[in-house]
Amino acid sequence: MRDRFFERLGEMAAKDSRVFLITGDLGFGALDKYVAGFPKQFLNCGVAEQNMTGIATGMALEGRVVYTYSIGNFPTLRCLEQVRNDAAYHGADVKIVCIGGGFSYGTLGMSHHATEDLGIMRSLGIPTIAPGCLWETSEATEALAKYPGTCYLRLDKSSAGDTSRPGEAFVIGKARELRRGEDVTLIATGGILGLALSAATDLAQRLGITTRVLSMHTVLPLDNAAVIAASRQTGGIVTIEEHTVNGGLGSAVAELLMESGNAPRAFQRVGLRSGFSSIVGSQEYLRGHYSMDERAIVSAAMSVARGFGVFARQSA
């Protein structure tokens, strides 16, 4: 995802001198090409994320489209006051980019586990986007430049590869239906989308459960129509996110369905339930440990299907 982001950002910078990148002293292996090509559209502010956000806001208010870039929690939680009071409150064109969503930097410990960011950024009322594949990453990078105000883009070390389809347009706030089904709907955000697609294949081949898969790359604004349709048309919903179950995708989906009077017949959330991730390991290991791997997704979907009576219907 990181490489796709910089590739698209470079293309944008070549066409629009307003595009500007500020980093908190990281990522120079990935940044080299951009910096060499656009030295006047780049600033390294050092390990000072609060300053980075303040500078970005000032530049944005003077007409720039500024992307701030850092690891995990650093461009979000570490400078939350500046994101809230400076950028978001003033509607500045600051596009906050996190590389390392969820457990991407799992071996570096809890300080680098970005597992609360979606809920926190969503609570500020700013567009909150977590691409699930390489195509979504590239398209979201440019879409944000055209979207007014402060936005958040969460990138991941994992992805579902490239799920693009001929003639498809990326729209902020519009979910993508990647698989059709009637028994269960899997709604995923971020790189964990790849596991949702694998789980859907397993459910179909091994258990005969037909699964609708939605890539909900935008957590805010949520695609209300797609979520409500899934609740009405399928047996139940499973939300999947590499994030705490509090405040993120699962919360957004549940809030919408309950408030609109469209409660699903069965509902499960796959995500972090232990508060903080207190152990260290690879992204794959931590997903397994905290029940966010393909096996956990299949189990949650089976629970929903069982609640809807899918297995009873199959045996009838």
Task: Give a verbal description of the structure.
- It is a single chain.
- The strands form 2 sheets. A 7-stranded mixed sheet has the order 2-1-3-4-6-5-10.
- With 316 residues, the chain is an alpha/beta fold.
- The protein is built from 12 helices and 12 strands.
- The protein is globular and about 60 Å long.
- The protein has helices spanning 2-15, 28-37, 49-61, 80-88, 117-123, 134-146, 193-207, 224-233, 249-259, 283-289, 294-308, 310-315; strands spanning 19-23, 42-44, 65-71, 94-99, 128-129, 151-155, 176-179, 184-188, 211-215, 218-220, 237-244, 267-272.
- The model has no long low-confidence stretch (mean pLDDT 95).
- The chain folds into 2 domains: 2-155, Rossmann fold; 176-315, Rossmann fold, CATH 3.40.50.
- Helix 9 links the parallel strand 11 and strand 12 (267-272).
- It starts with a helix and ends with a helix.
**CATH fold name of the largest domain:** Rossmann fold
Structural class: alpha/beta
CATH class of the largest domain: Alpha Beta
- Please state how the strands of the largest beta sheet are arranged side by side: 2-1-3-4-6-5-10
Number of helices: 12
The quaternary structure here is single chain
Strand content: 15-25%
Number of domains: 2
Contiguous uncertain segments of 5+ residues:
none
Helix content: 40-55%
The dominant shape is globular
- What's the architecture of the largest domain, going by CATH? 3-Layer(aba) Sandwich
* Number of beta strands: 12
Rg from C-alpha positions? 19 Å
- H/E element order: HEHEHEHEHEHEEEHEEHEHEHHH
Q: For the residues shown, what is the average pLDDT?
A: 95
Largest sheet: 7 strands, mixed
| CATH homologous group name of the largest domain | Thiamin diphosphate (ThDP)-binding fold, Pyr/PP domains
Gap between N and C termini, in Å? 46 Å
